Amino acid sequence: MRRFTLSTLRDYGVGRRTIEDKITEECSVLMKTITTYAGKPFEVTTVMTAAVSNIIVSILLGKRYDYEDPTFLRLLKLMNENIRLSATPSILLCDSFPMLGFLLGSHKILINNRKEVHDFIQATFIEHLKDLDENDQRSFIDSFLVRQREENKKMTNAEYFHNENLKALVLDLFGAGTETTANTLRWAILLMMKYPDIQRKVQEEIAKVIGDLQPRTEHRAKMPYTEAVIHEVQRFADIFPMNLPHATSMDIGMQIIPLLSSVLHDESQWEKPHEFYPEHFLDSEGKFLKKDAFLPFSA
Length: 299
Hints:
endoplasmic reticulum, mainly alpha, oxidoreductase, iron, 12 helices, two-stranded antiparallel ribbon, globular, 58% helix, heme binding
């Protein structure tokens, strides 16, 4: 399943120039949306999350949504609420002692939210089945359904390519492709407001390297300061402080939850661990410097 997922995502442009085109298109829509506020204050969470989510949604479902689409907004709300609930003490307790789930209201909300998202995904792939064309696959769901037909005919791997796995895959990719990037962008906006001198340096580098051109991946290598700022946003903000639980497969079978904060703010690894300091990722010549202690999402 992992091999199929990675291969299919690559087919739809992930890691290739195609995904850049999708991002560029979405950025244009986002900028037009922001200009409609004419410089007035507005709450950025919804539009930023919607813009980021549309990238992965266009791959999973083969379409993008308007930022004010009620179905889309409902999905984003459910996903955000579940991620927020997942970090609460009651849900963490329930993860350790599942039998307590029926006593906790937050656990019931989480389960109901997940069911609503699953129902939406199921309704979506049922729609895709109606006009599924093996020679014209438009989305990740289409590719999964085509592979499902093939495996059912051959009677091999059918236990993997079933509808429940499809719903779980789409849900996981939807969440993973939205929250971390959207949170990084929101933190970046906040930190640029708080540190205008750093914002000015980023703006100057963008103007010098990109100018009036369309931003492309190849520009990154020529923008060490901007790259350092992005990395420092993720280090300083500690967006995903606790990794998903892991379990040792040998010896004692203990479950381990890596605490990423411990390395991201380690005084032995960072010159100013508790300050926003992009120079953590720059060498003495101002070139971008990779750090082994930079583990923002997993360990």
